[in-house]
Amino acid sequence: MNSLIKAAQLYKSFGLSVVPVNFQKKSLINWEPYQHEIISDKELRKVFRYSSVEGIAIICGEVSGNLEVIDVDSKHDLTTHLFDDFYSAIQRSNADVASSLCIGATRNKGYHFYYKCPVIENNRVLARRSTTKEELLINPNDKIRVLLETRGRGGYVIVYPTPGYQFIQHDLGHLPVLQPDQRLMLMDIAKSFNLYERPRPTIAIPSIHYYDNESPLNDYDARGDVIGLLEYHGWKLVRYDGVKSYFRRPGITDHDTSGDFHHGLNLFGVFTTSTEFERKVGYRPCAVYAFLECNKDFRLAAKRLLAEGYGVPYNKRHRA
C-alpha cells in the first residue's frame, strides 16, 4: 500500500492526475472531477488507503498535460507480434520518435505508448478485427476485437506499480512532447493495422422532418421491445434508474456498463469502442434492430419488421 501511495505522489508531482483502482481496474472514487483538477495531497493519502486499492490509474487529457496513450491489446492479436510490428513501423517512419516514447507492459500482455501533444482527442479506436469463427462459438454476439486504440480525453490507463504492469522504455517522469504531425504519424501507422471494415447502412435513417407513423421503422420505434432485442443479442441489463436502462456489452469487459437506453428520448447509446455501434451516437430502436438483426441494412429491416406486424405496406398507406 505504501508503495502505491508513494508512486501516486510521485506521479502527482509530475503533473499527472491519479486515482486508485481495484483489481478489476475500476476507479474506487468518482473520477470525473479529476479529469479537470489534480487530487489534493490530503485526499490522495486518504483514498489510496482504502482496503480494496490494488493499483493506480492515470487520467489522460488536459488535466495531465495533454497526456494521450496508445493501447496495444495483444490478447486480441492473432499474429502474436502486433507490438513488434507496430513499434518497428514507428521506427521506420521516425526513429527519434520511437526512441522517445514511454512504453509500458500491461497485466494482460498488452502495451501502452505514452506521450503528450498540444493536440489530442477523446478515446478513439484505431484498429480492430472481426471475431473468428471459434470466438463466435463461445459468444455469437461478440463480433469485434479491438487491436489498437487511444486513451485521451475521458479515459484513463493503469500504470506501474500496479501488479502486472511495468515500464520497458522510459517512465512517466520522461514523457515526450510530440508535435501534431508526429502524433498524426502514430495515428496513421496504428490505423494501418485495421482489419475490420464497418458495414455501411444501405439507406439513411428516415428523416425526422417527415414522420410516417405507418412505416414499419417508425412503428417499431413506438411499439418495439428494444430492451428484449438487446438482451437477445447478449447485452446484459444491469440496472434501471427510472430514466435509463443500463447495459453491459456482450463478451469480456472490465466495465460494469457499456451503454444505456434513455426511455424518455427513446434512444440507445454506447460509451465503449468495442461494438458495432458508434460511441456517443443516439440510436432509435429501429436502428438498433437494423444493426443487430440486419447487418445495418435498413431496407431489409423495414421488410422484416413489416412481416413481423409493424407498420403498413407503402402502397396501402394514406389511402383516402
From TrEMBL:
Stretches assigned to the DNA primase/polymerase bifunctional N-terminal domain: 9-169
SUPFAM superfamilies: Prim-pol domain
UniProt xrefs under InterPro entries: DNA_primase/pol_bifunc_N (IPR015330)
Pfam families: Prim-Pol
Protein name per its UniProtKB record: DNA primase/polymerase bifunctional N-terminal domain-containing protein
